[in-house]
């Protein structure tokens, strides 16, 4: 059985409207976004800021297009704010996703993050967690995992450029110091390659913990330029450091092979933060789907 028979392909709305830089794609509507996802052949979506906040309203819009909710991003501030603040926000987020039928909750620690700072060098100023930060984070994530279990859901941690969990060593440390039954991992090809990590190595090492996947490609020349010129994460996005699978430097065939052999059966979400004025979202969503159909069967 091919991988495409075992997984579901979703699309992220960030190519239509960027939540970190709302001026990118401000003219693109929520309905255009989900309609073009469905037209491109996807059966799921993650949730963006333009999506209705009422679960029943959102479900109706999605059902008309044959789309389900794969997950949605949650920003935690476990290292920098009282845990109760993150806990309260998480429970609201959890309940919203549960009402929409999602099984996993994407969590990324934004304490000390520079990913949203337009002028901060991505590599030179990347945050490094102290022992105290790590202790807060690991215990806090386990607590969020327990809250997720109350709704029969799992948290999947999103390693991310410009945060305290970006590198191989940081991902390994997080996995080694959290309980496997409470904290799972999101595997994002684009963030790993942009950071200089080996995605195959990460997948092989942590495949038992991986319960959500983002497929994102990288334009090598742009990524190298951002690093060489001390650019920020957001500058990299504007310049086009990310693109969809099949349009960049990543060979997804061996990655698909590893995922297939691991028995993974969750969502694979196509995601590429790009300026929609430069990269038509529907065109690129379709390009990615055609590419994945070719290599996943």
From TrEMBL:
Protein family membership: Belongs to the IolE/MocC family.
GO biological process per UniProt: inositol catabolic process
Domain Xylose isomerase-like TIM barrel: 37-278
Membrane spanning residue stretches: none
Swiss-Prot/TrEMBL catalytic activity: scyllo-inosose = 3D-3,5/4-trihydroxycyclohexane-1,2-dione + H2O
Keyword Ion transport tagged: no
Organism: Evansella caseinilytica
Gene3D superfamilies xref list: Divalent-metal-dependent TIM barrel enzymes
Pathway entry: Polyol metabolism; myo-inositol degradation into acetyl-CoA; acetyl-CoA from myo-inositol: step 2/7
Family annotation (Pfam families): AP_endonuc_2 (PF01261)
InterPro entries on file: IolE, IolE/MocC, IolE/XylAMocC-like, Xyl_isomerase-like_sf, Xyl_isomerase-like_TIM-brl
Entry EC no(s): 4.2.1.44
Protein name: Inosose dehydratase
Molecular function via GO: manganese ion binding; myo-inosose-2 dehydratase activity
Record keywords, A-Z: Cobalt, Lyase, Manganese
Cofactor(s) required, per the database record: Co(2+); Mn(2+); glutathione
């Amino acid at each position: 059985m091919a991988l495409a028979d075992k997984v579901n392909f979703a699309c992220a709305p960030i190519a239509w409207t960027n939540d970190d830089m709302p001026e990118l794609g401000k003219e693109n509507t929520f309905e255009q976004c989900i309609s073009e996802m469905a037209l491109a052949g996807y059966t799921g979506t993650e949730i963006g800021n333009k999506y209705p906040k009422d679960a029943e309203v959102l479900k109706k819009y999605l059902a008309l297009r044959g789309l389900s909710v794969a997950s949605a991003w949650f920003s935690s501030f476990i290292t920098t704010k009282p845990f109760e603040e993150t806990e309260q926000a998480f429970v609201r987020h959890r309940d919203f996703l549960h009402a929409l039928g999602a099984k996993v909750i994407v969590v990324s620690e934004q304490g000390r993050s520079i990913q949203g700072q337009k002028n901060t060098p991505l590599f030179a100023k990347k945050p490094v967690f102290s022992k105290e930060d790590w202790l807060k984070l690991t215990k806090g994530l386990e607590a969020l995992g327990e809250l997720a279990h109350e709704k029969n859901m799992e948290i999947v941690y999103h390693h991310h450029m410009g945060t305290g969990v970006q590198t191989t060593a940081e991902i390994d440390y997080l996995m080694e110091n959290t309980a496997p039954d409470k904290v799972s991992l999101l595997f994002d090809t684009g963030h790993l390659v942009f950071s200089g990590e080996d995605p195959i190595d990460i997948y092989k090492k942590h495949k038992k913990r991986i319960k959500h996947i983002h497929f994102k490609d990288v334009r090598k020349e742009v990524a190298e330029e951002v690093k060489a010129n001390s650019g920020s994460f957001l500058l990299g996005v504007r310049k086009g450091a990310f693109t969809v699978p099949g349009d960049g430097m990543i060979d997804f065939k061996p990655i698909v092979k590893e995922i297939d052999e691991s028995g993974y059966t969750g969502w694979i979400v196509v995601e590429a933060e790009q300026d929609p004025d430069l990269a038509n979202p529907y065109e690129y969503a379709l390009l990615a789907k055609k590419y994945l159909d070719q290599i996943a069967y």
